Amino acid sequence: MAVSLQGSLFDATEEITPRPLTAVRRTPLAHGAWVDVLPGWLNGADALFTHLARTVPWHAERRRMYERTVDVPRLLATYRAGEPLPHPALVEARARLSAHYAAELGEPFVSAGLCFYRDGRDSVAWHGDRFGRGAAEDTMVAIVSVGQPRPLSLRPRDGGGPTLRWSLGHGDLIVMGGSCQRTWDHAIPKSTRATGPRISVQFRPRGVS
Ligand SMILES: O=C(O)CCC(=O)C(=O)O
Ligand SMILES: [Fe+2]
Predict the structure, then answer these.
(1) For the whole model, what pTM was predicted?
(2) Which protein residues touch ligand 1 with a CB less than 6 Å away?
(3) Assuming Cys at both sites, which of 24, 95, 144, 162 could form a disulfide with 38, CB separation 3.0 to 4.6 Å?
């Protein structure tokens, strides 16, 4: 008894498990876009946050903006198709997402992009994930959020509608699908409120970035 109790205390990976995806709720959006949301998808999300914050090789980036080079306001890590993910719970999460969306997506999620928002000054500006195939084709981007919640905002690119917001942290799942990457933009706005750290994990199919 004592041995198995110790095992469960020390093996945090045992505790981090996704709930069934059958509970996911879809919100249809204009222009053939939609989002699926499942609050608290990952049990043990706080332990996953701590693990990722400590062990992922986070890097800061600088990007050229017009005449200036500016700091990208978040830390980043990228795991391409075939590269080992930083925690087995993410392998499990990706497999569950790939299985759940197999018929609709027609291909698996392969890459994982990680963003670390240290506080309210960190953010991602309005954009769609349309460097790759998302520019021309329907696709999906599935995002698991751990740590403190931050609002993810979505607005139609043509300006024809209000901005929508989902507060995402502590194991919440959002999947952007249909035409969402080319007809809508998303952002994690800066906040002047006291804001704790959040990590997002974005799973994408091949060629979507
Ligand atoms: O942190 C998030 O939830 C969104 C990140 C994002 O949109 C991106 O990296 O493309
Ligand atoms: Fe994005």
Answers:
(1) 0.93
(2) 113, 115, 124, 129, 143, 152, 186, 188, 200, 202
(3) 24
